[in-house]
Amino acid sequence: MSGAEAILVTGGAGYVGSHACKSLAAAGYLPVTFDDLSRGHKEAVRWGPLERGDIGDGARLEAVMKQYNPLAVMHFAGLIEVGESVVNPAIFYETNVGGMLALLGAMGRTGVRDLVFSSTCAVYGAAQSLPLREDHPLLPINPYGATKLMAERMMADFALGQDLQFAALRYFNVAGADPDGETGEAHHPETHLVPNLILTGLGRRESFDLFGTDFATADGTAVRDFIHVVDLVDAHIRALDYLREGGPSLALNLGTGAGFTVRQVISAVEALAGGPIKVKECGRRPGDAEELVADAQKAQAVLDWHPAMSDLKAIVETAWRWHIAQG
Ligand SMILES: NC(=O)c1ccc[n+]([C@@H]2O[C@H](COP(=O)([O-])OP(=O)(O)OC[C@H]3O[C@@H](n4cnc5c(N)ncnc54)[C@H](O)[C@@H]3O)[C@@H](O)[C@H]2O)c1
Asked: What is the pTM of this model?
């Protein structure tokens, strides 16, 4: 690890960030995690040092940047749950918008130019046309998506006045786990579809809450585009290379272009569980879109990125193995 060039990974103790740290280390970098551990896990920081700090603390960010002199930043730190953002928007503005403000300031003061940012398909809101292209109108329907859009806008505005290049990577539904079992998805509370189904299939949850059965889709449940976390972080490494080679700032969708209904995902997990999963049908959640499927051709073309692990079976199998190993 010594002598490797550093990449600052905010949120590196979280689900996506920890997988990114593993991939960065494999690519020869030193991933330096900056995380307050409010939602992440100390044990997930295995591929480089952990620097504890709040993403809103610009002075602390600046000190860490001066210490490690990172080549670039990957910014994963943030709050992520749509439902929580509806109930408590203030902490989302504070963390996701205030955090970006502090980060961009620290990057400007220390001369770090390149930034790969975790954005989301929630910036689009309800789909007016499918699959969603990057030039689809940006009309988020929940505070989470609004804060991510503001963070994107902030990067674009700062790039006018400071030496900054960014890639806003708009994730669709991230799922799956490291095939080696070294890290995986562990949100507390867990609200994501695949882990919740698996936890129910393993008997660690009484039942699975199915939100919305009256959407205008093939079986009435919402349609989502699932991307394996390993493919997702591969796109981050490629985006880092792209920026380091001087590529101009851009926004890219990260998905597969294939949509699955929630009921199809339930069936995929039931196949692993060897029997039916107890499902509790609930009403729609506020802020949930009916169908979100990516047009990811731009990422494929610009980054030469081709998801290799993102068929639904590989996604649920790697996640299943990870959850079994957690006991
Ligand atoms: N998981 C998905 O499906 C998904 C989809 C779209 C976008 N994203 C984005 O990807 C990023 C990572 O998501 P994740 O699923 O890994 O979430 P996560 O909760 O597992 O990781 C987020 C990390 O940020 C840290 N963090 C939170 N607030 C902080 C603060 N104030 N200061 C410092 N650190 C703080 C947490 O401790 C955690 O380790 C987020 O920005 C999220 O918006 C995720």
From this structure: 0.97
